[in-house]
Amino acid sequence: MTNTIEDITHDSDVILLCGSNPEEAHPVIGMQVRQAVARGAKLIVVDPREIDLAKKAAIHLKLKPGTNVAFANGMMNVFIEEGLIDKEFIADRTEGFEELAAIVKDYTPEKVGEICHIDPEDLREAARLYAKADRAPIMYCLGVTEHHTGTEGVMSMSNMAMMVGKLGKAGCGVNPIRGQNNVQGACDMGAQPNVYTGYQKVADPAVVEKFEKAWGVDLKHLQPGRMATECFHDMIDGKIKGLFIFGEDPVVTDPDTNHVIKALKSLDFLVVDELFMTETAKYADVILPGRSYLEKEGTFSNTERRVQRVRKAIEIPGTKPDTEIFSLIMQRMGYDQPILTPAEIMDEIASVTPSFAGISHERLDSPEVGGKGLQWPCTAKDHPGTPIMHVGKFARGLGYFYPAKYQPSTQQVSEEYPFIMITGRVLYHYNACAMTARTPEINELSGNSFIEINTEDAQALGIVDGDKVYVSSPHGRIASWARVSGKTSKGEVWMPFHFLDGNSNWLVGDHLDDFSKTPEYKVTAVQVEKATEEKECCQYMEVPNIVRKKKKMAKMF
Amino acid sequence: MIKVTIDGITVEVEQGSTILEAAKVAGVEIPTLCYLKDVTPEASCRMCMVEIEGMPKLVTACSFPAADGNVVHTRTERVVKARRGVLELLMSNHKTDCFSCPQNGMCKLQDLCFEYGVKDVPFEGVEKAIDDSNKFFTYDPNLCILCHRCVNTCQKRTCRGSIDTTQRGFKSVISPAFGMDWADSNCESCGNCVQACPTGALTMKKQKTYRHWDVEKVLTTCPHCATGCQYYVYVKDNRVVDVEAADGPSNRGLLCVKGRSASFDFAQCDERITTPLIKDRETGEFREAGWDEALDLVASKFTELKKTYGGQALAGFACSRSTNEDIYMLQKMTRVAFESNNTDNCARV
Ligand code: SF4
Ligand code: SF4
Ligand code: SF4
Ligand code: FES
Predict the structure, then answer these.
(1) Looking at domain A183-375, does it have CATH number 3.30.70.1350?
(2) Range of the domain at B12
(3) Global ipTM
(4) A189, A197, A218, A330: best mutation site toward chain B, by most B Cβ within 10 Å?
């Protein structure tokens, strides 16, 4: 996020919410969006579904899934046509305006209305409301990024904000609401093939040299890395032979489950560091017991780039800190890695990462920070952190208008697969639900797979609310339970991806966004039918047997 | 700025500040029950009454705007008597059975009664039905003082608007619309109303498993979504037993159902793996192994594969739910020991 949750929900006049359902995915942000509406801020909801917040919205644009770029270009068409652009901001702080302006000229509200299945007047209204507001943030989420054109979708968001000068000040900005608790941190910490910590590029020889010095190894000989989604292909092709997975469950969370399983089975050696016997761990050669956030010191970085402390509360006998596990493996592989405390590791991170240079556990725990965390960039011990990015100047100098054109989704419905399936989250769970599903009350509230289907479609298929149905795509078939309503549009169905008894990921293909290699979760062509007879469905592996050591350990709890 | 004197301490506060806010600056504590920070004052309980020189009536500090030159007394005999009266009235409608109440020891009402010497007020009300339908918390109207902190929280802080004051028989109670059960309403089970309740009327079911003086509080960050809510976990005998929202920068004292009620059972459940496991590829069975054996095997296998196929044949994926320190070390291991840039996280899923 360029801004803070507080300023975009407390200092804004209009909020443009694109493909984001914070009430369920980020509930406490959702509560603050509701506070904003109660305070009088106007809400524009851009979402194919009738989400609850849409009822509170001044305008709801029920976009056809996968048409975000067309929508954004349509908005900008109106900005230009109606003279709503911020000329001064564009002239002083950006480049590439002319090229983009030439592109969006074709995206008249009428044309966009046709592509996106929305009323052109509503689009005009939304454009005026957003552009004329004094302070208006854009908030977006996986609904924008999880498409094969996700990168263009993201660029389109900042294009809109730059064109009306709504960046670099409070109550504005372009604010992706990151999904998992520390996905921001995982990217910041260099767990990406092309960057080290703080987005320092692997392709930059000076950066490589710096890390060689800091770590005392040669890094120049390392080949360019591959992204996880590409790695699965490489495993099947025999190019990747050994994999270490730390706390992820790709068998459940990644698209095209059969493909992921095939990849894991192709490996010579798979190690999984985990809390539980997850679907992925079942395929491991070695499982190392990991620790949860309650059993360690450390930090998470939230969606506002705010680094906050995690503190040890309990200890589970038998386990080791994960950092110690990694260090012991490094030592055994011939790299002299001392066992460091989490505070010492953060000091090392600060020493190699300019944007983290001022961050330490000591400082985070100090009265100076007062429990408010530190938002990177935080470049020195006396730097207060950066709540709002791009004030006065963009990180890259001039803001670039990315010339994004709308491309139809590669997924189109056919006679065989007549529905567009969108996937998402529900309030009570998180992702693979390995954590939330272990609270029994949560499962009582929400424990089974379901699929939302439009009333008219359901009628045509003879499906009533609560019916068991089969959902299939070229990738497989699953069983689920129908929820019939007007929440989704005709021809569209919606499914959460948490539940093991009917996980939509079996059905999703792995056609990736060209740049970020994000799977296109949001759009999949599927068939839905009433379950009148038993049909074979995709199944996870059975729980493997575990041979216990003779000396039975005393039960822990 | 205006000058106000509270119990002899003169402070400068902004125009429009309430007496309660001025008292806070002066470091004088005024007891409150219905007052809720950041929300328009309810001013219904009258617990916060104070005396201002030159004014005939006592005023409620939480709502009364301070004026320049005000001289305020918060502990005069008259004030104390009035407050005791307030408490006695509340207690006559409150079933006193503190020892069996889950709130015992952390109840504001109990503390105030003790402080103002209010005890043994006979319960004059009619017993009302308890609403136990919510999975995570219970509402006992017999302990409710109708201070509306819960209602104001739900309507003005979480903005869900699930509950209000309604009539049951001749008495007011707190409930979802039309007196329906809590579980049947649009309530999201966030529990923010429960945390706001100053009495034992709204309590988390988990509160029955511990006494508050037995727990240690540890401040940490929620592990579910990227909002980064701050909360205290309550630890008793190496187990987390409950969660209390902290006033973090992104959550401002609020939590959702996942953070409050589904953020610790998983860590201490029986399904945790606590011993390294090694698979026999022939049988598909795992067997328990010691740490040294498992780590030796991991290191030797990866070393062997690296020697045969090169570092690019190895990969290390990090978990985007784990800490920064863990993730940094994982990618470092992949780069320096595996000699591979094939490191990634689940950012894209
Ligand atoms: S339930 Fe608690 S917070 Fe709500 S009115 Fe009763 S005493 Fe006050
Ligand atoms: S739990 Fe949350 S949603 Fe439910 S009544 Fe309380 S504050 Fe409202
Ligand atoms: S309490 Fe809820 S909103 Fe807050 S971080 Fe946890 S899951 Fe997200
Ligand atoms: S706290 Fe002031 S009237 Fe209740």
Answers:
(1) no
(2) 2-75
(3) 0.90
(4) A189
